[in-house]
TrEMBL record:
It comes from the Bacteria. GO terms for biological process: glutathione metabolic process; hydrogen sulfide metabolic process. It comes from Fluviicola taffensis (strain DSM 16823 / NCIMB 13979 / RW262). InterPro entries: Metallo-B-lactamas, Mito_Persulfide_Diox, POD-like_MBL-fold, Rhodanese-like_dom, Rhodanese-like_dom_sf, RibonucZ/Hydroxyglut_hydro. SUPFAM superfamilies: Metallo-hydrolase/oxidoreductase, Rhodanese/Cell cycle control phosphatase. Residues 271-310, 367-445 form the Rhodanese domain. This is Metallo-beta-lactamase/rhodanese-like domain-containing protein. CDD domains: POD-like_MBL-fold, RHOD. One of its GO terms (molecular function) is sulfur dioxygenase activity.
Length: 449
């Protein structure tokens, strides 16, 4: 048995190929299926099986496309309510894969329909467990994503209770030597304290993972529910896509409309002013010249997450990049969260009818009371340390909906922790207050405070 781990760093997502005697099983495949086809071709073997541990909330899976291309069977829990052809895979079920077996464990907690998969090698030994979003390295999955999405919904407290028992009655009973392969690592919003490690063992997790330690059910639930990260707008939308099954990756991104670069006023005037503008260029380019009401959501490692946190599902937007190569990459990345169909037009921009306000940092340092300071960091960051005592806290993911709460009688200074989010936040506020006040991005200067 050979296990290959695939990583999508932008979404902190791990997927897997299990190879045994000419057959491959894929677990939680990412949006682009090509790496799995390449792996199968490299080994001259066939993809026969695709398993979804649950309907993912943070990325679009390629399970349906792989089934249609390779005729592999898709296995999911009967609780999932899948709308595509599939076979149920629950407690007591096994799949023969070459000389090996895959065994299902129902492990609800992150979602009511979550399963884990135990890989049993040629010698009948339990070798590895693929835990989806149930057990992570150093943490367990959050239980608050399925109150309003999925085939069956469950309150967070009920799922937290199920998580307590899944970890203790199912996963912790496996041999200490069993390798743990989760669906996510550090940076994912599917948990709150994930490790940078990409694998572990049951024995190591029993020693170090807080969620596997001896504690009462009540204490576990309380700890699990506290300080979970925010839920991006696109998460419930994603569950629905994955329950239905997404269309073909290449086919979908090829349908995105592109136009020639915008380099002049006449070109810009052809755009619909009612459509949201997402400008991904570096902030220095954006500040020099950009389109009116554009949001500066820069091309960065967390682009997908913030796109799906700021833009609503089914909301049209223009996608702007600094060059054609980056534009194509960002269309592909947008498709990972199922937003490619929302791109009204994608284009390169070398023009602007607005620029960003100049900022006198020394005046700000010496006269903080002259400014309205907006802190757009996440609640957990503000709880840990407030940078400016007089600041108003509105997290970035709520800023478009709450901008009317911001006073406009003083210049507005927007900050995050390092400059990436404040570029987006300041541009959002500027687009919402329509010139009622000066809006300034504190950017990386926040580090001096």
């Amino acid at each position: 048995m050979e296990i290959k781990q695939f990583e999508d760093k932008n979404l902190a997502h791990y997927s897997y190929a299990i190879h045994s005697n000419g057959e491959i099983a894929l677990i939680d495949p990412a949006r682009n299926p090509q790496p799995y086809y390449d792996f199968a071709k490299q080994h001259d073997v066939k993809i026969t099986t695709v398993i979804e541990t649950h309907p993912h909330a943070d990325f679009v899976s390629s399970h349906l496309e792989i089934q249609e291309t390779t005729h592999a069977k898709i296995y999911v829990s009967k609780l999932l309510g899948a709308e595509y052809a599939h076979q149920s895979f629950d407690d007591g079920d096994t799949i023969k894969l070459g000389n090996s077996f895959l065994k299902a464990l129902n492990t609800p907690g992150h979602s009511p329909d979550s399963i884990s998969i135990v890989a049993i090698d040629e010698n009948g030994k339990e070798h590895a467990v693929f835990t989806g979003d149930t057990l992570f390295i150093g943490d367990c999955g959050r239980p608050d994503l399925r109150e309003k999405a999925g085939a069956i919904t469950s309150p967070r407290k009920e799922l937290a209770k199920q998580m307590y028992h899944s970890l203790r009655n199912k996963l912790i009973t496996l041999p200490d030597s069993v390798i743990v392969y989760p669906a996510h690592g550090a940076g994912s919003l599917c948990g709150k304290g994930l490790s940078e490690q990409n694998s572990s063992t049951i024995g190591a997790e029993k020693m170090s993972n807080w969620s596997l330690q001896s504690m009462s059910e009540e204490a576990f639930i309380q700890e699990l529910l506290v300080d979970q990260p925010f839920i991006p707008k696109y998460f419930p939308f994603e569950v629905g896509i994955n329950k239905k099954g997404a269309g073909g990756y290449q086919t979908s991104i090829s349908k995105v409309l592109k136009r020639e670069a915008i380099t002049c006023t006449d070109c810009a005037n052809t755009l619909n002013p009612e459509i949201l503008i997402i400008d991904t260029r570096p902030q220095d380019q954006f500040k020099k010249a950009h389109l009116k009401n554009a949001i500066n959501l820069m091309d960065d490692v967390k682009f997908e997450t913030w796109l799906g946190s700021i833009v609503n599902p089914n909301e049209s937007f223009y996608l702007i990049a600094e060059n054609e190569e980056v534009l194509n990459q960002l269309i592909e990345r947008t498709s990972k969260i199922g937003y490619e169909n929302q791109i009204a037009l994608a284009f390169v921009l070398d023009y602007g009818n607005e620029s960003s306000d100049e900022f006198d940092l020394e005046d700000f340092k010496n006269n903080l009371n002259k400014y309205t300071i907006i802190d757009i960091r996440n609640p957990s960051e503000v709880k840990a340390a407030k940078i400016f005592e007089q600041s108003i806290h509105i997290p970035l993911y709520e800023l478009r909906e709450r901008s009317q709460e911001i006073p406009t009688n003083k210049p507005i200074v927007v900050h995050c922790a390092g400059g990436y989010r404040s570029a987006a936040g300041s541009s959002i506020i500027k687009s919402k207050i329509h010139g009622a006040s000066q809006v300034i991005d504190l950017s990386e200067a926040v580090k001096t405070f």
